[in-house]
């Protein structure tokens, strides 16, 4: 049996803000060909974890290795092989879509044929007719599709995604799910943080649930069902059970009665 290659390996990662422990000694891996869903209630530590993985925040302790490269020791090398899609991307509004993609291609020293990959995604996202327009005229959904186009153009071994469907219409959301599946099928890895349990259930091979800075459960949907003792249930019921929010059912029943 072929040993799985870890595109992302996190060991004993922690981050404090004054006396508040936002992330508390978490460890997990994401293998080549895998999409890991990262779920948790508000304030659970998802955003802090994402910012550490993307190299925006420095952890207080622990290690992050991307394609077997240590992020703390080689931050530039790690950022070159990581795609980051935030929920609210910052883009240079006085550039056109085409100029932004050329700028990104220049930062990563892409060859001409590599840059041309963006044309495929511009067409898929219905952005081709907008690529000569200033980004300041783009809607939030269009900006999201532009940053995804840039990321897929780079073809990094790892993509870190925070709430990818925010602002997307149903057609684009469906397309993004298929693109993520295809990307993983080609041997890449995706770390996907989302509040949408439906999306996680549809495309994630493994799911990690973080609560109060700690990972409380991790595994396939089937293994999480067994852990929650909810055979045959969907991810919503499993998530509520494992995060201690199962009493919500009684609250909803009381509201209806």
What does this structure look like?
The chain has 257 residues and is α/β, with parallel strands linked by helices. Helix content is 39%, strand content 25%. The protein contains 11 helices and 10 strands. It has helices at 46-53, 75-80, 97-107, 112-115, 117-124, 140-154, 170-185, 197-203, 221-228, 235-242, 248-256; strands at residues 6-17, 20-31, 35-39, 61-66, 69-70, 82-85, 158-162, 189-193, 206-211, 214-219. The protein has a 6-stranded mixed β-sheet with strand order 6-7-8-3-9-10, sandwiched between helices. Helix 7 (170-185) links the parallel strand 7 and strand 8.
| Tally of strands | 10
The percentage helix is 25-40%
Alpha-carbon distance between the termini?
Answer: 56 Å
Q: Can you give the mean pLDDT?
A: 90
Rg over alpha carbons: 19 Å
Q: Helix/strand/pairing class, anyone?
A: alpha/beta
Tertiary shape: globular
Main pleated sheet: 6 strands, mixed
Classify the oligomer: single chain
In the sheet with the most strands, the strands line up as: 6-7-8-3-9-10
Proportion of residues in β-strands: 15-25%
Discrete helix count: 11
SSE ordering: EEEHEEHEHHHHEHEHEEHHH
Low-confidence stretches: none
List keywords for this structure.
4-stranded antiparallel β-sheet, 257 residues, alpha/beta
Describe, in short, the structure shown.
This protein has about 260 residues and is an alpha/beta fold.
Secondary structure layout:
Blueprint (H helix, E strand, L loop, with lengths): L5 E12 L2 E12 L3 E5 L6 H8 L7 E6 L2 E2 L4 H6 L1 E4 L11 H11 L4 H4 L1 H8 L15 H15 L3 E5 L7 H16 L3 E5 L3 H7 L2 E6 L2 E6 L1 H8 L6 H8 L5 H9 L1
Parallel strand pairs: 3-8, 3-9, 6-7, 7-8
Antiparallel strand pairs: 1-2, 1-4, 4-5, 9-10
Helix pairs in contact: 3-6, 5-6, 9-10
């Amino acid at each position: 049996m072929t040993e799985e290659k870890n595109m992302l390996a996190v060991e004993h990662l922690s981050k404090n803000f004054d006396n508040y422990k936002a992330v508390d000694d978490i460890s997990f891996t994401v293998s080549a060909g895998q999409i890991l869903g990262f779920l948790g209630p508000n304030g659970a530590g998802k955003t802090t974890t994402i910012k550490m993985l993307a190299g925006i925040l420095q952890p207080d302790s622990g290690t992050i290795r991307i394609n077997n490269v240590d992020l703390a020791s080689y931050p530039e090398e790690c950022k070159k092989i990581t795609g980051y899609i935030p929920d609210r991307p910052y883009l240079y509004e006085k550039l056109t879509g085409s100029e932004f993609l050329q700028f990104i291609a220049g930062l990563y020293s892409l060859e001409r044929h590599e840059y041309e990959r963006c044309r495929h995604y511009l067409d898929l996202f219905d952005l081709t007719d907008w690529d000569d327009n200033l980004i300041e005229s783009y809607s939030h959904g269009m900006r999201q599709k532009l940053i995804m186009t840039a990321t897929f153009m780079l073809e990094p071994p790892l993509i870190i995604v925070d709430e990818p469907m925010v602002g997307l219409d149903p057609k684009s959301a469906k397309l993004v799910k298929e693109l993520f599946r295809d990307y993983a099928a080609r041997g890449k890895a995706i770390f996907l943080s989302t509040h949408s349990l439906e999306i996680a259930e549809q495309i994630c091979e493994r799911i990690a649930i973080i609560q109060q800075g700690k990972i409380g459960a991790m595994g396939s949907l089937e293994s999480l069902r067994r852990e929650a003792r909810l055979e045959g249930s969907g991810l919503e019921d499993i998530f509520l059970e494992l995060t201690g929010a199962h009493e919500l059912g009684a609250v909803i029943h009381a509201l209806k009665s």
